[in-house]
């Protein structure tokens, strides 16, 4: 027996030695290794770092050289470089819960605060009632910050909150003196990026190995969330006014996680880990990718831990619209933000030689390109001339002319640089069918305008109708209030989510098209390396811009109600959102009214959100029950929550459970004809108040609510109601897979106080 045991031990030892020898010859990749949180208590280590190194030492000879990060707050575990054989050894270790490969995520104003109804002079407004967000700390995970920007001036800012435990990390061209009472902390996380990325190309902007921003995106988003007031701000004279963030009194903490090759999940998780310990109140993440299961999603896992620490996590929905099922960052404990338009336009029309005009937009400075130019649109061949690829435009064909470039493939501003380098005098950027009439504009390096798809058809028809088409661009400056707004941005990602079809996403929409905000001095307003112009502000579009808008609004609500949970803050934003535009008409999604899968509960309205009347609150345990209800396994739930639960026991003790979400989603599987959901509302308004229900039923569905009135006798009192959904017998396939409605609780004393929940009914052919 002893001989067999010795032989087995020698075999294992030999296997391990051979594996390690072979591993040294294998390429290394970064993995995030999640450990059981209770396992360290069984060991005698001075710190979690020592424990993590000891685990890593079981598979590699040089653990300190392979370890990238040791996580303590956002997750229990570490990030390390492993070969394939080492990975297999790691999977067999006792306390390893899950292993995930490092993933690269992508990065998804002078007027928008006015558009949202925020005013420093309104004594009953959200700014004054929240103290402009004073006392709240917004953590921004992005490309860093340009601290010298006037948007981060700390004049009139209160002292740094006593709870703050963060640092101002020194690095390349950045030190402690760059932080102040506005910008109270800054860190950078580059280990995941540095081991995964090739060296930047000559065309890339040089990186700062510090919290300093070399790309502009992070400076733009941070100032959108909580930038100080900056008078006379504009982009090359356009959109002039006073720039302010959504929470101008809030403090900002910067976590630089994004670099020239993207944002790696190991770096993001490390930033969330530090942010939780630093003491932030809000986390704004304008980054993400395509949707993945929650148990594989480092942002979902880290944000669950943040939520448990009372931190609101605000995430961009993504820019993959209008494709269905494209919405990202869909965990029910985060706020998922889509993008909307403003009612501000920057007209730059093209006067064609046939006397007709096509509408376009631009922030290029000037009133007109007076000289009439020949218009050229180069097609045919395989050089991509119609897209204005680098090197695709023959100088003899475009010199001194106005060049038409189709949108797509390469960057919009890049196309203008290509035209300029080829000798072109101006550019017309033409939307294709995929972009339709979406009008995300740029600060181009030459006279240029962006035209919609229908306009591009008109323009190309004119070009084909004559031997020498002519035209000139007339720049019209800034026009406010004449266009309908808000509407859903074409690029904003759409639901439903495959990862969690029970929760409609996005949650809300917020301004994300042509947003003017702060910009670093190392870049021109187009962000192109060749652009030598320097500005303090530029214009950008994306759900990346929408996300910090809501991050700032969440800070306002938290300052007004410091004891509220992240779920309560999200509820206030969702149940008070607008479903009509500033003309009182339905918010549009292209040429049709927007639905819940495009705009969520609607467009944020901070004036109403600051005092919503009622809230839908959710506890961490209820999120776990929700994961059980959508059939996540015990190990998958443990990976996300670090909690060992029995779904069978939880669901047995909570029969009829449905997550207390502000929106209501019902899925009718094949053969089902009725379903009941329960909701719980908490009174955060007048102590004695009564609400009556009003329902707009989805087509083909009968809706019953009981009780139909909710009478509260005190503040913070919670009452429940039930909603029955019954499919009508005539309900058939003609009505489509989705139907929508709305449930509203109206305050009988004050009709202005109404709490709205969108209803989504899904008819599924599946029985599972």
Task: Output the keywords.
single chain, seven-stranded parallel β-sheet, globular, 768 residues, alpha/beta, 40 strands, 20 helices, eight-stranded mixed β-sheet
First and last CA, distance: 52 Å
Low-confidence stretches: 1-15
- Count of DSSP strands: 40
Radius of gyration: 27 Å
Number of helices: 20
**Major sheet summary line:** 8 strands, mixed
Structural category is: alpha/beta
Tell me the overall shape. Answer: globular
Instruction: Name the beta content range.
Output: 25-35%
Q: What is the topology, as strand order, of the major beta sheet?
A: 19-18-25-21-22-23-24-20
Mean pLDDT: 89
Question: What is the gist of this entry?
Answer:
The protein is α/β, with parallel strands linked by helices and 768 residues long. The chain contains 20 helices and 40 strands. The strands form ten sheets. Strands 19-18-25-21-22-23-24-20 form an eight-stranded mixed sheet, with helices on both faces. It has a seven-stranded parallel sheet with strand order 7-10-6-13-15-16-27, with helices on both faces.
Task: Write the SSE topology.
Layout: H1 2-23, E1 29-35, H2 48-57, H3 63-66, E2 67-71, E3 77-82, H4 84-91, E4 96-101, E5 104-107, H5 112-115, H6 126-129, E6 137-142, E7 183-188, H7 191-196, H8 217-226, E8 230-235, E9 238-243, E10 251-256, E11 258-259, E12 262-264, H9 265-278, E13 282-285, E14 287-288, H10 298-308, E15 312-316, E16 335-340, E17 344-345, E18 348-352, E19 357-358, E20 360-361, E21 373-376, H11 395-398, E22 402-406, H12 412-421, E23 426-430, E24 448-451, H13 453-465, E25 470-475, E26 479-480, E27 508-511, E28 515-518, E29 537-540, H14 543-560, H15 566-575, E30 588-589, E31 592-593, H16 596-599, H17 606-609, E32 614-615, H18 620-629, H19 634-641, H20 647-652, E33 664-668, E34 674-683, E35 689-696, E36 701-706, E37 709-712, E38 718-727, E39 738-747, E40 754-763
Parallel strand pairs: 6-10, 6-13, 7-10, 13-15, 15-16, 16-27, 21-22, 22-23, 23-24, 33-40
Antiparallel strand pairs: 1-3, 1-4, 2-3, 5-12, 5-14, 8-9, 11-12, 17-26, 18-19, 18-25, 20-24, 21-25, 28-29, 30-31, 32-34, 34-38, 35-37, 35-39, 36-38, 39-40
Helix pairs in contact: 1-4, 8-14, 9-10, 14-15
